[in-house]
Write a structure and sequence with these properties.
Length: about 375
């Protein structure tokens, strides 16, 4: 078969990590089928190479509504048996049987994450088109599958749940010099609590900061809260909370960082806290577990099916509960060790090889 995969978002967060790992493992398990990988020039180097991988550079905006016309022509010229879009961006014309992966429906659940009403309308329309025209829909969790059925009316029989996994680079680091160096690089002077996210409302940074303030009021020890992700804008709610609580020297924002630094921060953290309100899958808790770090995690959306019993689960809307959980993990060594052991075991239940094998099976079914 000639299988086309849209890899133009390979340098994006979330979708990009999914695409990179899927292509790496398909290369390992399938040397028979031919793959046409559509990418753009700036991220072409991230697309894996293989004898049966043919890269096609496509220099057009990914999200442009106008480009969806010419995108269909690109696919027709490629003479594909199957086309897979790892995201909801869908061409107006699909000249072959197609597969789409839906990671989440956050803008339909939390509309405030979108910049405008027009953007929300476009997002819904693109997801409806993709899921209605694709022959099979891959959902990365049972939670996402349920939302596809509930919010977009997709038939359950059309959806296959294929979970993601942790990149192999995330592992326990025992070199104390490296861990001390990463703390120095980001001016972390105390034992610290880590979160990986962004300032969008569903990531729940505001309640996490409030919970951290409660913890600092009750605790006799000094801690830092380290937030990895894009910095908040000035005069935002987060900025106001930090200044009002006097936490300017206790809350550290790293900005967007590289994978190597993230690996070391996971390892250096005392606890990883993930109070997200909604996740399509939620890789950061698993990444932290792979690094041997105890995890506190929301009991919402897909997260309970991802972390199982390997994390301390909390209600992300309850600030006091978040604060209490952080205090408990920071001071109870037996609990920390139990969460650490369970986390390392939990990570082994997920595998990118399994993801690739299940996806290849979908290609074979669709391309018959």
């Amino acid at each position: 078969m000639r299988i086309g995969i849209d890899a133009r978002m390979i340098d994006w967060a979330g979708v990009g990590r999914y695409t990179q790992n899927l292509l790496k493992l398909l290369r390992e398990i399938d040397g028979k089928n031919e793959y046409i990988l559509f990418c753009d020039q700036k991220s072409e180097h991230l697309v894996p190479t293989a004898p049966n991988y043919d890269k096609r550079v496509v220099e057009q905006p990914v999200l442009s509504p106008l480009y969806q016309f010419s995108w269909g022509r690109e696919l027709r010229r490629a003479d594909l048996d199957v086309f897979h879009s790892p995201h909801f961006v869908w061409p107006y014309i699909t000249p072959c049987p197609s597969v789409v992966t839906i990671h989440d429906l956050i803008p339909l659940i939390s509309p405030e994450v979108m910049p405008s009403r027009l953007a929300r309308i476009y997002y819904r329309w693109m997801n409806e088109r993709a899921t209605s025209r694709a022959k099979r829909v891959i959902a990365v969790s049972k939670s996402t599958k349920q939302n596809l059925v509930r919010l977009l009316g997709v038939s359950e029989t059309k959806i296959k749940v294929i979970q993601e996994a942790v990149d192999e680079r995330y592992k326990v680091v025992r070199d104390r010099n490296l861990l001390r160096a990463i703390k120095g690089k980001y001016d972390i002077k105390q034992r610290f609590i880590l979160n990986v996210g962004n300032p969008k409302p569903h990531k729940n940074w505001s309640r996490l900061i409030k919970a951290f303030f409660k913890l600092m009021l009750k605790s006799r020890r000094n801690y830092q809260l380290v937030l990895v992700g894009p910095k908040y804008s000035e005069h935002s709610e987060i900025d106001y909370l930090i200044r009002r609580s006097g936490l300017e020297k206790r809350v550290t924002f790293t900005g967007i960082i590289g994978e190597e630094d993230l690996l070391l921060l996971y390892n250096a953290a005392e606890v990883f806290v993930f109070p997200s309100l909604y996740e399509g899958f939620g890789l950061p808790p698993l990444e932290a577990m792979a690094c041997g770090t105890p995890v506190i995690c929301s009991n919402t959306s897909s997260l309970s099916e991802v972390v199982g019993n390997a994390a301390l689960m909390i209600d992300p809307y309850n600030v006091s509960e978040i604060a209490e959980a952080m205090g408990k993990v920071l001071t109870d060594n037996s609990l920390r060790e139990k969460l650490r052991e369970r986390g390392l075991a939990r990570v082994n239940k997920f595998s990118w090889k399994k993801t690739a094998e299940a996806t290849l099976k979908i290609y074979r079914e669709v391309g018959k």
